[in-house]
Amino acid sequence: MATVLLESVNKRFPDGTQAVTDVSIEIEDQEFLVLVGPSGCGKSTTLRIIAGLEGSTGGVVRIGGRDVTHVAPKDRDIAMVFQNYALYPHMSVYKNLSFGLTLRLNRLFGGGVLGRGLRKIFQPRRASEFVRQRAEIGNKVRRTALRLGIEHLLDRKPHQLSGGERQRVALGRAIVRNPAAFLFDEPLSNLDAKLRQQLRVELKRLHRDLKATMIYVTHDQVEAMTLGDRVAIMNEGRILQVGGPLEVYQRPANLFVAKFIGNSPINLCPGTVCRVGDRFEFESRIPMTWGPDSPRFDRLVALLDGVSGSRSVVVGFRAEDVGLAESEGEIEVEVTEVDRLGESTMVHSRVCGPPTRGTKEDKFVQKNTIEQMVLFRLKSDAECALGDRLQVKIDLDCVLWFDPDSGENLLKE
Ligand code: ATP
Q1: Domains of the chain
Q2: 340 confidence band (pLDDT: 50, 70, 90)
Q3: Mutation probe of ligand 1 site: the residue of 36, 39, 45 with most atoms within 8 A of C-beta
Q4: Could you tell me how far CA 280 lies from the centroid of its own chain?
Q5: How far apart are CA 35 and CA 52, in angstroms?
Q6: Taking the CA atoms of the chain, what radius of gyration do you get in angstroms?
């Protein structure tokens, strides 16, 4: 297995589309890295550049320390699994799995059926080596099929398989080659939700068993979070952040990452923060106060050092950072929607009280300031109905601050 290194990789298509801009990342040996981002952000192009299916217009690609920037795909020692399986329709599962290896074996020994027949007579040792290696391919195929639970399907053709079985065959075809790295381009997106979840678990197990370097492209943040040792979030051709799943969730580099990662949308509230004595007051539809005993107070002091008057910020907090308040005087919200999810209840609400106006130049003021929404999670059997008025509180420990213009996370260490 191998490390995969991208150094300042760029891709501009002939029509002028800049698909990838200055992408640098090191994927460690045996790491599972997920490239995630919205449609068109350049993740497939990046993967295809690693595979050699697309040439870059700048930068270097190294696999296992070797510069492969100008090396043909077949000589890069990688295997790629696509969304559409790409199986040979006229071949059995066995042949689909063994095809690449058999082709290589035949190239190595050459001569076709007639040649091999003649060799049996004139080069018996070479002929027996051929037979030995062919048997080894058979064993490898059967071992792989067993590992993927498709050993009973080896005689079937792809059209006789379900979507999940076809994707297992596609996976198997990559595994038998024992490549330096596996590249996956949305391999599960054609499958239904339940099967996707099942195959995700299997992929994780495979990754552990094979001790393989894997790079996986998806637009699905749940897939990214559950599969990746690390997750690289891309937008508009650039990598915005690389980190462990929890790190990118709890400490997003910027607003884009904060909004993209997470099952339910992050709550955002624009406002201004100013120093009042030894405290910081956040003036907005959701007022908050940080005193010297508050979490990360030192960071706020450093951030606002030298700022006279107030500073515009967008405060962000997750649904799970909002809870019901035990006393009055916290934030009062009116329930606008209740989603009963089974394991929990998502409550959509709007902050009560007269709307306030933000400054015109604040990008995030818009609808939010006029009607500040708050999404939060309660127990599954929580008594809560449309129109209810509730007192809620926000865990200041988890609140994030973003710059309204650049979107940068202002409190990130
Ligand atoms: P998706 O999830 O929809 O597959 P993606 O993040 O994988 O999206 P890419 O397929 O890498 O995105 O495309 C990145 C950008 O490059 C897009 O704007 C796309 O339209 C553009 N693009 C892709 N292939 C070509 C091409 N051959 N010629 C011109 N532009 C292209």
Answers
A1: 264-402 (2.40.50.140)
A2: very high
A3: 45
A4: 36
A5: 17
A6: 27
